[in-house]
Specification:
Blueprint lengths: L2 H5 L4 H27 L1 H4 L4 E10 L2 E11 L4 E15 L6 E15 L7 E21 L12 E21 L7 E18 L6 E13 L1
Antiparallel strand pairs: 1-2, 1-8, 2-3, 3-4, 4-5, 5-6, 6-7, 7-8
């Protein structure tokens, strides 16, 4: 995907913004992979955690399995893979939109934010989604396949690559040794980076999440 492709959209400013977010996300993921490769021997001595995340938002649910590495006592890098289920109803560009798709995430967590249990979380996801949509329209007067005044449904499918940057807060609890429970609240934006088919919904997103993890 090139800068020219973004810039030739109807709104050049929006194209530049999308390009910046896309390149920033890919750069952060490349840096994470480079970090893992360069410091793999040291990581074998670092504290590593695994677990599951579930995030609910008004139009769907995101689930992912993650692996995190503590860089210090208050800084953690996390990567994960998961699935985004969505049912946007008529909140998108059509009368009904629903679907989902797999993706992966990258996250930086700053622990001890304001108090020892609170964390500041910067996260960026990439989702590869198939959205099935329906438009409801009145029967054309010239049509012989439906009656006058009848509502017909015109379905379709759109393939879309979504970038989802978010910022949030988490409150970590450890009811027992090596076990982590963390409710989270995040705010961000869904940005449709590449679309095959008709345009579908995008925009601001609020997520309420729950993290369950195990630390070695």
């Amino acid at each position: 995907m090139t800068f020219k492709k973004f810039w030739t959209e109807n709104d050049p400013n929006k194209g530049f913004y999308r390009y910046f977010i896309f390149e920033f996300t890919l750069t952060m993921k490349k840096l994470f992979l480079l970090f893992v490769l360069l410091f793999l021997p040291a990581l074998s001595q670092a504290q590593v955690g695994t677990g599951l995340n579930v995030q609910a938002y008004p139009a769907g649910i995101i689930t992912d399995a993650y692996l995190d590495v503590d860089l210090s006592s208050n800084l953690t890098l996390t990567t994960g893979v998961g699935y985004n289920f969505t049912n946007r109803r008529d909140w998108g560009e059509h009368d009904n939109e629903e679907g989902g798709g797999p993706g992966f995430s990258f996250k930086i967590e700053k622990k001890g934010f304001i108090n020892e249990n609170l964390s500041l979380i910067l996260r960026s996801d990439i989702w590869f989604m198939d959205i099935d949509w329906i438009n409801e329209e009145p029967c054309p007067s010239s049509s012989s396949s439906c009656g006058r005044g009848e509502i017909i449904q015109n379905p379709g499918t759109t393939e879309v690559t979504v970038i989802q940057p978010t910022i949030g807060l988490g409150y970590g609890l450890s009811p027992r040794e090596n076990l982590l429970i963390m409710p989270t609240l995040s705010f961000g934006y869904e940005i449709n980076m590449e679309t095959k088919g008709e345009a579908v919904g995008e925009g601001a997103i609020l997520l309420l999440g729950f993290k369950l993890g195990y630390k070695q």
